[in-house]
Amino acid sequence: MEEPIDPSENLAAAGWRRVRSAGAFMSGAGPLWAMREGEGWRYGIWSTEAHLNPAGFVHGGLLATLADHAISTVAWEAAQRVPCVTVQLDTQFLAPVTTGVLIEARAQLVRRTSSLLFMRGLLQVAGQEVLVAQALMKVHAPSGPARIPAIF
Question: Does residue 107 belong to any structural domain of this protein?
Fold first, then answer.
């Protein structure tokens, strides 16, 4: 069996940095990488056998998770770092993803109302689009103790 590739040195040399505080769920899905891109960020996960579905391709749940993370982080920045939650996430899977590749995610704000952010997301592998997404994010003003928020 082949030794698994450790992309850490190559990614770091290319300007990527490993995100250590992405939360337990995202850390378990990753590791997650980030790179500054203009005013925003680009996020990535290096695909491994741990990410595969029974068909031998990267699981769609991982791709959706990465898209949601990128979209949520950009929404948080657009909302002046006020927490946002995903109300709706629509994904279109465009191509299968294999192991040993960097899956890159970008997101952008399309429109904003007083409490909602309309977002777009894109995942690419080596410049090829593998997933596009649209999301509706709810901005939550800081409040007292945690509670289950109303969506609208």
Answer: yes
Contact 33, 17 (CB under 8 A): yes
Q: What proportions of the chain, in percent to the nearest 5, are helix, strand and coil?
A: 20, 40, 40
In a domain, 109, yes or no: yes
Give the CATH number, domain containing residue 87.
3.10.129.10
Looking at the structure of the chain, the number of domains it has is 1
Query: pLDDT for 1-56, tens place per residue?
Result: 454 566 888 898 899 999 886 677 887 888 899 999 887 889 999 999 999 999 99
Write out the residue range of the structural domain in which residue 12 sits.
8-139
H/E element, 102: strand 102-112
pLDDT digits (tens, 9 = 90+) for 125-135: 999 999 999 99
- Asked if 107 and 89 touch (Cβ cutoff 8 Å), the reply is no
Question: 63 phi and psi, to 5 degrees?
Answer: -60, -45
Count CB neighbours of 107 within 10 A: 27
Structure tokens at 100: 């040993």
